[in-house]
Amino acid sequence: MAANGRTQSRRRAQLSRDSILEAALTLTAEGEQVTFRALGGALGADPTAVYRHFRDKDELVRAAYDRIMEKARAEVDESSSWREQIRQLAILSWENSEQHPHIAVDAPILTTGGPGELGCIDLMLGCLRAAGLGDRDVVRFYGVIGSYILSISANISAQKLAAADQGTDINTAWLYDVSGIDATRYPNVAASRYELGELSNDDVYLTGIDVLLDAVEAAAQAEAPTVARARQR
Question: Would 65 be classed as within a structural domain?
Answer without folding.
Answer: no
